[in-house]
Amino acid sequence: MSAGQALWRGLRGRCPACGEGRMFRAFLKVADQCPRCGEELHHHRADDFPAYLVIIITGHILVPIVLAVETHIAPAIWISMTLWPAVALAMTLGLLQPVKGAVVAIQWYGGMHGFEAAKKARAQAAHGG
Ligand SMILES: [Zn+2]
Question: Which residues are CB-neighbours of 37 under 8 A, at least 6 positions away?
Answer without folding.
Answer: 15, 17, 18, 20, 21
